[in-house]
Amino acid sequence: MLTKRFLDSQELKIDVGEIACWASAERCNVGRSILLRARIGQKCDILGTMKKSINNFEPLIGLRSGGQPETNRRKIFEDRIDLAVTLRDVIYRFFMSNSKAQDDDLHRTFAVMGLTKTHFPNVSLPQGWIHQIFAMDCKATDVLRFGRLQESKLPNTVATLPCLEVFFVGMSDLKATIKVLRGHVNGIALAHSRAHRKRKKILSEKLTTQGGCFGAVPETPAKKARQKDPGE
């Protein structure tokens, strides 16, 4: 809920709860490849969808690793893998829906954001949370980079509220990044649609000039008048 309050409601539609990522649900039905279906994206706790995006791009995925008491390390590791898989599905779905755009523009889709929250017990910071911001991009075909951008600790005590400054800076950077990413994503979608229309126009003109697959279609000859038999 704290993350939702810090983000821009006019830029993102934030859904909270156990919800399924549309990109992961769509990828689950792509073919029967064992590699693609080996590990499909799971449900997420927070999902951000761009309101002003042409393709309903999902740039923000969030997972919460447990609550009270301390989270198991294995659970944290598995949630991080699930987050990486879900971000991969978002990028692949965007590439497939804009396949006619330029490759350089597609691979400059620089960041799809992921959030994780992990509970940690501490004497000085009781019942706090570790908030991490991850990002993923694709620089080449099937070459994805996944890394952590920022980590901040969120305590639940009033005495340590100044620690929220780090969280505020991270959320401000996240809002600015999503705003820039929205313009980039819409530009790719427009380039894809222009390329599709241009190709369709060229094909229609080519068929018109050639007259179909069998070359130029000759004009239908005029029906000849039947000559009368002189013996009649």
Descriptive overview:
With 232 residues, this protein is of the alpha+beta class. It has one domain. It is 40% helix and 24% strand. The protein is built from 6 helices and 6 strands. The chain has helices spanning 2-6, 22-27, 34-37, 73-97, 103-107, 164-210, and strands spanning 12-19, 44-50, 60-65, 112-120, 128-140, 143-154. A 6-stranded mixed β-sheet has the order 1-2-3-4-5-6, with helices on both faces. A hairpin with a 7-residue loop joins strand 4 and strand 5. The N and C termini lie far apart (102 Å). The model is unreliable at 36-41 (pLDDT under 50).
Short description:
With 232 residues, this protein is α+β, with helices and mostly antiparallel strands. Helix content is 40%, strand content 24%.
Percent of residues in beta strands? 15-25%
Q: How are helices and strands ordered from N to C?
A: HEHHEEHHEEEH
Biggest sheet statistics: 6 strands, mixed
- Mean pLDDT metric: 71
Low-confidence stretches: 36-41
Task: Note the gap between the termini.
Answer: 102 Å
Write down the Rg: 28 Å
Task: Please state the structural category.
Answer: alpha+beta
Shape: elongated
Q: What oligomeric assembly is this protein in? A: single chain
Number of strands: 6
Helix content: 25-40%
Total domains: 1
Instruction: Give me the side-by-side strand order of the main sheet.
Output: 1-2-3-4-5-6
